[in-house]
Amino acid sequence: MSLFRFFHRRRSDAELQNEIEAFLAEETADNVARGMSPDEARRQARIKLGNPLKVRESLWMQNSPLLLPHVAHDLKYAFRTLSRTPGFTIIAVAVMALCIGAATSLFTVVRSVLLRPLPFRDPARLVMVYEHFRGGELSYHPVAPADFYDWRSKTHGFEDMAVVRPAGYNLTGVRNELPESVGAEAGSSNLFSLLGVPPALGRDFTEADDQRGSAVVMLTWSLFERRFAGDAKIVGGQIHLDGQPYTVVGVLPSWFTYPDARIQLWVPYKVDASPEMLQHHDWHGSQVVARLRPDVSLASAIAQVGAIQYQNHLQYPHDPVAEDIVSRSLNEDLAGDVKKPLMLMLSAVGCMLLIGCLNVANLLVARGAARQKEVAIRSALGAQRATLIREQMAESVLICAGGGVGGILLSSGATEWLAKTWKDLPTAQSIHIDGAVIAFACALMFAAVLIAGLLPTLSTTGKSMLKALQTSVRTGSTSVSRTALRKSLLTAEIGITVVLLVAAGLLLKSFMQLRATNVGCVVDNILTLQYGLPGKTYDTPEKQDAFNEMLLARVRAMPGVRGAALGTTVPGAGYWGSDEFTVKEHPPLMAGEHLPDALTRWADPGYFSALGIPLVSGRFFTSDERVARSYKVIVSHQLVQQYFAGADPIGKHLHIPGRAHYGAPNLADFEIVGVVGDILYQVGKEPKATIYFPILEGRGAAMLAVHTATDPLQFSVPLQKQIASLDPELPVSDVLTMKQIIGASLVNASLSATLVLAFAILSLILASVGLYGVLSYLTTQRTSELGIRMALGAPRDQLLQLMLMDGLRPALFGLGLGLAMSLAATRIFQSMLFGTKPLDPVVLSGVIATLLAVAVLACLAPAWRASRLDPMKALRTE
Amino acid sequence: MPKKNQSNSEMLKGTLDMMILRTLVGGDAHGHTIAKIIEQTSEDILEVEQGSLYPALHRLEDRKWVSSYWGASENNRKAKFYRLTAKGRKQLVRETSRWRQMTRAIGLVMGEEGGA
C-alpha cells in the first residue's frame, strides 16, 4: 500500500493542487460574501491557506514513507559530487575493485579446495588411513596390500575400507586410433560404493571382477567424452590396454575427478597384481580410504587398526613393516600441501583489502574536511546526525558498490587464471564463481563500506563539529583530531604494508634460492620423454632390452646429440620410489631399529656420463650387466656416508627384499659396483641416499633423457620419429625439457612468491598514495601558518624539513609497527621458506629501505611545495 | 476575523482525523467545507491548518475510511468531495468512545465533575 502511494505521488500531488485551487476559490467566494473587495478576498484566502507548497510538501513526504527516496536522493547527490571529481572516483573505485576482486578470487579457490565438502556421500566420515613408522617425523606412508587385508578383515570400527593404487596403461585403438598413455588407478571393487559414487553409465565393479587376470575397466567421463565421443555403446565393448582387450563395464560421472583430473580410467585392484605382491607387508604402494561407522569414534576405529598393524610389525621384525598408522580426513588429504600457501595468500589479500579500505577512508576524510563547514551549519540548523551520516555514507556506498561490481567481474577472470596456473590445486575443475562467492563479495563490500565510510563520517559529524563553526577562519588547527585520525589510519596502512613486504621478500628470496639450487646434474639442453613398452609385445626382458638398446644407439647417432641417458627418472623430477635395505656384511639390526631406506632408480651404462653425474669411486654399469646377471647396484655418495661411515662400499652387498626377482624371494642381494655423486630428487627437498639398478635387467617403462648441442625442443619431433620407426604403436608421453621438469616443481613456489609480491607492491603504492594525500592536505591546511613562519624569517630548508618530518612520522611509526607484526606473522609460514629464515637481514633491510625511500618520495612533493610558497599569497589565503 | 489564541488553536494530536470523520457524518463535503464546519462548530476556537487538513484527508482515504469523488460545490465549482465509508463509520465509533474515555479520565484527574 505504501509502495502504491509512493509510486502515485505525482498523481496525488496534482490532485492536491486542484483541491487547493478549489479551496482558494471557495474561501474567496466566502470572503466576498462577507463583504470584502475581490482583491482583498483573494488575499485573505491565501493568507488563510498559508504556503501551498508546504501543504504539497507535507503530503509528498507522507506519501514517501520509505527510507527509499531519501536514500535515492542521497545516492544521487553522492553520485553528483563524485562525478565532479572523476580522478578521485576512478582511483577509489579501481582500488576497491582490485582489492575485492583479489579477495573474492582467493576465497573462491579456498572454498573449492578447503571448505566445500566433497561431492561424495557423507564425506565427513571418509578418512584416509596411512602407515606410520615411529621415530621419524609424522609421515603419511603408503600402505602394503597385506596390511590392508588384515585391517579390513580384523577390525570393525569402519563400515568398509577400500584400497587404491596408481597404474598406467597404453591405450591403443581397436580401429587404428592413435595410441596414448593414460593415467589410471586400480581400486578395490568396493571403492565406488564406499565413496557413494554410482556409475553414470553401466555398472560398478563387482567382487568377481576384482581378480587377477580379470579384464574389466571403468572409464572416467572425460575419457569417455574425448576418446569415445560420449557414445554409450562403448559400455560392454572392448578397449585395448597395453595390447590386452578389456571390457568397459561402466562410466563414472562427470564430476568424479578423484584423486585428480589426470586419472582417465579405473581397473580393479587385483587385475595385474601377483598373489605374492598382495601378500607382501612391505610393498608400500597403495592408499586406503575408509568410511567410519556412525556409532564409532574415529579414535577408537584408528586404535583398532593400529593394534593390528603393531602385531604385523612384530611378526616381521626384519621387514619394513610400520609399527603404527595415522589417518586424516579425505578432504584434508586431497587439499594436501596447498592449504598453507592458500591461507597465506588469503591473509595477504585480506591485508590488501584492509589497506584499500583504509586508503579510501583516508581520501574520504580529506573530502569530509572540505565539507566540514557545510555539515556544521546544517547541523546547527537542526539536521539530524543520522541524516548527515547517511548522506556522507552514500559516497562510500557508491565507491564500494562500484568496486564490488568491478571486483566480481575481475575475479571471474582471475579465478580462472589462478585455477589454471596453480598446478597443485586439487579439484581444479570445479573452481568457479557461484552464489555463495557473490554473497561473499557482497559481504566484503558491506564491510568495506563500513570501514571506508563510517570511520571518516563519524569523525566529521561528531560532537566536535560545532567547533568548526566557532573557530574562526584563520587558524591552522581547525581539525587536529581529524589530522590525528588520518595519521593513525596511515600508520595502520603502512604497518600492514610492511608485513606484506616482509612476507613477499621472504618468499621471493626462498624462491630465488630454489631456482639457484644445483640438482646435481646437467640441466641445460636436456630433453626428456617417457614411454612404456606394452607387456604383451615385449613380454621378456630380452625383448625390452633389445628395444631400449636399439633406441639408445639410434639416438646417440643422431647429429647434434651429445649424449643420451635411459633410466626410470631424472634428478629433480620427483620422489619416484624408494626401498628399504640392509647391508649384508653388517651385523643384523636390532629388533625395532629403523630400516634404512633409499630412493631407487634404474640407469643404463651411459646414464651417468650423459647427465654429468660424477663417478666417485668404482665403476658405472656395463652392458653385460643384464637380466639374470644384473644383481649389481650403484649407490650415491650420501648412502655411503650415511650407512658405511666412510668405509669402502665397493664389493659389499645390499639386501633389498622389495626388489627380489619374482618367484625368487631369496635372490635379493645386490653387489655395489660404484659410487656416484648426489642428486636432488626434488628442488627444495633434502637430498636423500639413492640406489641405482641397471635398467638392462629388463624394464618396460623408461624415461629417455637426451643431452643436445642446441635448443632441446627442436629434437622432440626427430626423437619421436626414431621411436615410431622402431615401434609405430608405442605412445610417447611427457616430452619436457629438464628445465621444464625442474621449473614445474617451482611453479607453486614462484606463484605464491609472485602473488604475494604483487599484493605487497599494490599495498605499497596504496600506502604511498595515502601518505602523499595526507601530507598535501596538511600543507594546504597549514598554508597560512607557513606564510606567517616565512614572513617571520623561517628559512625554506627548515620548512621543508618540518613538513617532511610531519609526513615521515606516521611512516616511521608504521614501519616499527609493521616490523613487530611481521615477527609474529612470518613464523606462521616458516615451513614454506627454503634456505631463508624469518628474520632474514637482507630481506628486512631491503623492506626498510624500500619503504623509507617510497615514503620520502611521497612526502617530498607536498613538502617541497610547502617550502616554495609565496609568503604573500600564503598569508592572503583563507 | 478575530485572531485565535495560539494555545487554543493548536489541535490535540490525532484528533483531527476523528473530527474530519465526525464532520462527514452529516453528509459528503469537500476540504473547504470540512475546515469551515470544524471551525464553526468549535466556535472558532479550533483552526484547521490547511497544511495538515489535506494530508489528513489523503491519509484517511488511504486507510479506506473515506472515499472521494470530484463533484460540483454549492457554488458550482469543481471540488473534491469526501464521503464516509462503512469502515470509516466503525472507526469513528471506536475513536469516539476512546476519546470519551480519555476526556473523562483527564477530567477526573483534573477534579471536574463527570468529565466530558
The value of Rg of chain A in angstroms is: 38 Å
Mean pLDDT of chain B: 80
Question: Which fold name corresponds to the CATH topology of the domain at 6-85 in chain B?
Answer: Arc Repressor Mutant, subunit A
User: Could you estimate the helical fraction of the residues of chain A in percent?
Assistant: 40-55%
Q: Bin the helical content of chain B.
A: 40-55%
- Terminus-to-terminus distance of chain B: 29 Å
Shape label of chain A: elongated
Global morphology of chain B:
globular
Largest sheet of chain B: 3 strands, antiparallel
CATH structural class of the domain at 6-85 in chain B: Mainly Alpha
Give start-end ranges of low-pLDDT stretches of chain B. 1-9
Q: Under the CATH scheme, which architecture of the domain at 6-85 in chain B would be assigned? A: Orthogonal Bundle
Mean pLDDT of chain A comes to: 82
Unreliable parts of chain A: 472-477
Structural class of chain A: alpha+beta
Q: Helical element count of chain A?
A: 27
Oligomer: heterodimer
